[in-house]
Model the fold of this input.
Amino acid sequence: MDALREKARALLEGGTVKVVIGYAGGSDPQRARAVFVRDAAQADQLIWNETCRQNLATYLNKPEVKALGKPALVARPATLRSLLQNAVESQLADEAVLALAVADGQVVELPTFAAIEEYLAQQPHGLTAEQQQELSRLAALSLEERWAFWSAELGRCIKCFACRAACPLCYCDRCIVEVNQPQWIPVASDALGNLEWNVVRAMHLAGRCVDCGSCADACPEGIRIDLLNRVLAQEALGSFGAEPGYSTRKDYALAAYKPDDKEEFIR
Amino acid sequence: MADFEPKLVAFVCNWCTYAGADLTGTSRIKYSPNVRMIRLPCTGRIDFMLLLQAFGQGVDGVIVSGCHPGDCHYTSGNFHARRRWMLSRRLVDFMGIDLRRIHFSWVSAAEGAKWAELVNGVTEEVRKLGPYEGFPKRLNGRLKAVEVG
Done:
């Protein structure tokens, strides 16, 4: 934590960056909040602990954040992945952001995409055993049980779109839920609309999601929408070898195709 | 359930399957009248949400069909669509939506007989499954409120 504050102070004083986007203590000790440190004197607000979960990359493509000047970004491995995926999708230029990875009390500066790729190559890939078990447990339920589970989960959705706001890859200026001519998805919380919104959100992230978990963390109803992303990520990995966010040289899996993609379900 | 007539919606591409179904008619092949066809420019346009909305309006089964791989009018629309179907099938199955009611096919403009066979086959399969009652409906544009348990 001291190393992080020290680094932020040095970067701001040296003028390398104009703002350090990091974590500060929240009103609830279990949840850190994002902080935008623009003055070296305020670098002591920065914290680093296990409550620092939010993916801060989500702020990078906001116009008001862009207007602040070059940012440094305190990044977890998943945050780094979302930077690379944003780059693949032409949303982020190389060297436009200085990523700060914190590990073992050390702060590693990652100024370029190449440096991020190299750093991520050292990190563990794939699902944890716990996450894997959770998916298998749900997939093993019967059709009716799965439907009952997801009807109850999505039934709680209030369509606040916090999941969208929290996601660094949900960056469209105009989103389908704001289109009202025609109104594809009703604004009110209704059973079909909740299903539509959550299926559409998950599908729009299929093959792109870097599994940071910020959507589920942001959900005020505690809906496990991260599971939907995860099951799609698994399918994209299995079918297309998609591992979004580990390289800037690989296309988004659904923007590519192979003539011999498997199609045993098509008659 | 013996007199249950399933309602099907078919989302088809303009260039192959729609023309194929037209050929079924001009060839005077009789097939199940349970299907309502919706013509779209390309299978690449068929968002999975359209399928959900069809179920929401009370259909019991959905057919999605377009040009055979390599025959797409727009060169690669069906290849992209196929990748999306692979993922979305896994997702809706994981969520407990009944995949036995969602059918995919390639029907070319020359395959009038295949279209008839497909529709007849799907009609029979869905007839056996019965109406899709568990799915939330939005009939005549009216929302169904979420039941708070």
